[in-house]
Specification:
Length: 204
């Protein structure tokens, strides 16, 4: 019975793949991200956000499921990203210093798209699982949530039936974190990230 079920399952997968209803692919690309938060001010440090973006990369896999004129595309990929902020010591007259906040995470978007010839339009929710983060400012720690939620929306094009090129914007629906610790004191702040992603993929 188990063997029969296995054969039937393989036959269905093969049939779907043959009918080009299901495609598996790999993808990689570059991303430009920024870090947004409420101003933090203490006797030890003043932190303010800047508009400068940080470049990173992402790589992973995706599955495209065709449903009539639409398609569903779940993805899983590793993302290296971050942002920049200004640091100033209130006890000195020194100018502001530009610091960085780096983060590694696993992104899990679920996109719904519409295809017009080779052109695709897609959007959907995206889950973000933070696996590590760091900053180059000594004495600063951030209370970062493990899992946050956001959204992605953008355009894509399929080239030569195998290659895919995508450009997307990503925003956050939930806060990356609610506080930072400076000199042993916690300060409330609403931390969020946003980014632009450019990806090149290959479908098997």
């Amino acid at each position: 019975m188990k063997k029969l079920f296995f054969v039937i399952a393989l036959s269905l997968i093969f049939s779907i793949s043959n009918a080009q209803l299901l495609k598996f692919g790999i993808k990689a690309g570059a991303n430009s991200s920024s870090f947004n938060f409420d101003k933090v001010e203490s006797p030890d440090a003043i932190l303010t956000q800047v508009s400068d973006a940080t470049w990173g990369f992402h790589a992973g896999v995706f599955l495209r499921i065709k449903i009539a004129m639409l398609y569903l595309q779940p993805e899983v990929y590793f993302t290296s990203m971050g942002g920049k902020y200004n640091y100033q010591d209130p006890a000195s007259s020194a100018v502001e210093e530009l610091k960085t906040f780096d983060m590694n995470r696993v992104d899990i978007p679920l996109l719904v798209g519409f295809k017009l010839g080779p052109i695709r339009i897609n959007a959907g929710p995206s889950g973000h699982l933070v696996i590590s983060h760091s900053t180059d400012l000594d004495g600063l720690t951030a209370d970062v949530n493990g899992m946050t939620w956001g959204y992605q929306a953008g355009l894509g094009i399929d080239l030569f039936k195998k290659l895919t090129l995508d450009a997307r914007y990503e925003g956050n629906l939930s806060s990356l974190g609610e506080s930072v610790t400076i000199g042993g004191t916690d300060f409330n702040t609403d931390m969020r990230t946003s980014q632009f992603l450019i990806s090149l993929g290959f479908m098997f």
